[in-house]
Records
---
Amino acid sequence: MQFKRLKIVEQIIIISLIGVLFPSVISWFVINNVSQHSLRRELGYSAQIIAKIIENNISSILNSDNNRLDEIIISLKHIPSDNQKNLYLQDLSINSEIFKDFEIIRPSENPEFNFDKDIIYNSETEQLWLIKKIHDDKYLKAQVNTKLIKDNIFSNIQDETARRVYIVDMTGKLVFAHNFDEQDFQKSIKQLPVNLVNNIVTRFETIKNQPRVYLKMDNIGLIVIVNTTKELTQSTINKARLKILAAFLIAAAVTLFLTLLYSYYLYFNIRQLFKGIIAVSRGNYKKTITPLTNIFTPREIIFLSEEFNGMINEINVSYKKLKEKNKELKQLDSFRSNLVDTVSHELRTPLTSIRGYTSRLLRKDIEIDEETKHKSLLIIKQQSERLSRMIEDLLVIPDIEGAKLNINFERVNLLNAIENSIYSVKNIETREIENNITSDFPDIYADKDRLEQVIINLLGNANKYAYPDTPIVIKAKCEKEKAVIKVINQADYIDKQVLNTLFDKFIRIDDKTTRTTRGTGLGLYIVKGLVEAMNGSVHLKSTADNVFSVKIVLPLYKEVSDEN
């Protein structure tokens, strides 16, 4: 079975779950356990504090009552008769909030009382009596208002259900109770140790999370028992447990959210890099990546993105240069093919003529008259000049393409240059050429030989494509200190799209299959290159009325000399 590799985002999620949830669960158990122990101790401490508070309350109340009884006994000693004493005590019973009843008793008449103690409690009647000695055979017995004492004893216990407090005498009889429960009371009495420690709060718990304490008040013969209820334990520990759990859940949720958010941004940026690499592998060298940049974006991602985009830009530039070089190679290959085709086609005719007439003149088996010799030599001369012009055209192309033309600027008489060009063209073929340039036309600033080569090419081109028996017209004028020369002939209309391509190399109006004229297709290309090298411009125009014109704009000599 082949192992399936997980994606980055899947791995991050799994690691996050293991790295966040697992430690969080363990930490929750540990902290919950520590918290439970701490709360258990706190419940025990609070039970001890309550027991101590109740002891202080009882002591304070009894001390106050004893002081009051001392005052009453002093007053009784100053009352002479028993009748008056009884009236005094009755009056105190009516007006006192603390004591309900007063009685003077003798030990001999009340053997049931233990006169060695200051407190007497009757569990059957739930009556509490304080005993105070008047003199050797008489004691003052005062019944205490138990409800008032109970309220004062338990006044500091705020929560009515949080604790169960029992105050019992040394025999285990209940004196006072707070939040009394019979079953709990009986269980507490049974679980009390046999030997009680005097005046020290002591724990005697039997249930783990419900601490119980007792306090034996030896001086007054009471025992305070403080029990922790199950409800208090559950509410305290469970609330703390829920708070801890909620805190851990919130922390885990926030951590997971931030982790997932970080994972999303990281995955998105890595995905961008992944898409960019795929695009490059498929030949798309323009695909750049734009990462999400925020606090979650690592510096390495930004660095990789910038480096990738820089690499893509360099590849794209190199690819464009390579395409241009390939295009140039194709053009060179096309140029080579056209050159071979043109040279093989165009040079063959003049060479054949030269070879044929030369062989004829060299024959000794026939008589050749002078007129025939002259015609043959004239044809050889014309074909040689044609061959020479074609070779010159071919040789000037590299200089034009490499911008290495050697231009000798000088003052040129336009009429003389055009007449020389017309003479050269008339030696090739006879056609009417109308030269409308006057002798007073201003001189121009150009290369005389190059200018004549331009005019010869234009006249030759016009001669090839003009209608039979139609003239070629040459005229010129001055416009804004420029010489505007036009060569006009009548020929078929040429569409603008075709017209714009005539300045390219080896472009001819008639293709190889319909070719009726001679030529290399380099005439207008050379014209444009030479004219621009002489700081001029050339324009073609073909109208619907079958007029074709070439306009050449060259600087006048005056303009150039003034600028210099």
---
Amino acid sequence: MNCESVIPPARRHERWALGLLMFLLGGCGLAYEYTLSKIASDLLGNSVQQWATMIATMLFAMGLGADVQKHTPANVLADRLISTQVMLAVLGGFGPLIMIHGFALLPQLYIIIQYSLAFGVGMLIGYEIPLMMRINEEDTPDMRINLSQVLKMDYIGALVGALLWTFLLIRYLSIDRISFVVGLTTMASAILCWFLYRKRLARPRARIAEIGGGLVIVSVGLILGRSLTVKAEQFLYRDPVITSITSPFQHIVLTKNRIGNVRCYINGHLQFNEADEHIYHENLVHPAMHLADRRERILILGGGDGLALREVLKYPDVREVTLVDLDPMMTSLATTDPDLIRLNGGSMNDPRVVKKAGAGISAGEAYQNSQPSQHERFATTSHKTVKLHVINLDAAEFVKTFTERYDVVIMDFPDPNSPDLAKLYGRPFYDHLGNALNPGAVIVQQSGSCFQAREAYLCIGRTLKAAGFDVVPYRDNVPSFGEWGWWIAKSGQSAGKTREMLASLKELDIPTRYLTPELVDASLVFGKNQLVSTNQDFTSLTQPRVYHYHLQGWNIDEIQ
């Protein structure tokens, strides 16, 4: 006999409703896991660790929740199912706010708050799935069909939920709105559950009140969520938050103090401080530009804020710049945010620049700029048109596919505080990069603190050497970050000759706010044994050594 014939015709509509209910529960459960893991990685960094441990905690709690349900009496299964969904909608919806407030106000207890929340959400998800199977068992006693109906749609819902979260929700909604949208979807499943099992409810009116209260709470959260999140997030920063956005790749915050000084944070880590960013960016760009035999074609990897580009555009012989930054939200801010435009000198909106998307590679938009530029920081020399290719792509993917060659390559990446970022400091990346250089070309890599994270700094140098670059270290003090270091190399030239050329630099033929030839010479001097290490390893695809050294240098393992 066909298994489908076991289901009475009168129950077919309930089977479809059950499938829809399980689909919603599966999708929402997965979305809660992703949302809480994303917040954890934004607050603490180390995204791989946070995602792995948060999801593992929730899965463990789901198992306990499935075990706890065995104590639920059969006569209140439907009541408990609705109550569980309402609690899940409220707890999951307000989860990001709970985590942000906990991180800001109770830092000593934050880890307990984070994993208690993950455990609570996991328990509720795990509790409701076997409840559904027990309820469905009354109409479908055949275990084969019961398991198929419940688990099949739950897993399909999880897949769809993951796809929607990854490609739709995180792209168009802030993380706090995502949690409340998922909460409202969970409330919709509670309403569906009430209609589907209303005849089995022990206290139907109480469940209506519960659903109504949950809808009001989650709806208020959705309406006020943005302002509540900003207020909660403000506890994390000394200066007032003026911009807070979450892209699919990172969380970006801009703050401004009472004298108008702007700071930029990505995933809670300071990226630049207006008071001294020029020290960092002038050191990053100008030594490399002055070493190069030519400087017509420039590649900037990272630097989506346009600050390194500001320095590059000071050179009248630059003809083409390719800027590769993973996050289109960052490059968009650099062209639209008034404070960033003021800081980057309008580099992304300069009338000398014709913007083009990288055909076949870029996810960016191609457009001709018509906005005025702030020229005061640029040289007054007449410039020809500069073509700027803004490419929103992972730099590691870009260097595998490009066919162009460049005169100067400027690597302005965040510190290697995750395995994903560590690959940008790895030998495979540098091997591919070697194919992008014209004869006499120069590369420069920002390399973090050569004092606080000295082993990470030295590991970057060893990795560049393993890839065939004869690199020279240099450093300077950036007040917001402390002692900071870079590595620089010229194609086809020994490190000794490169060092000699930098030390003998007589003048900078472009305007600077900080850097002088004397400072370039002084940047080549390190303290005794500061460049000595007993380690000889380097970063590869399977061994992200720079990541581990970075964590050790900043004691991040102890914090987390």
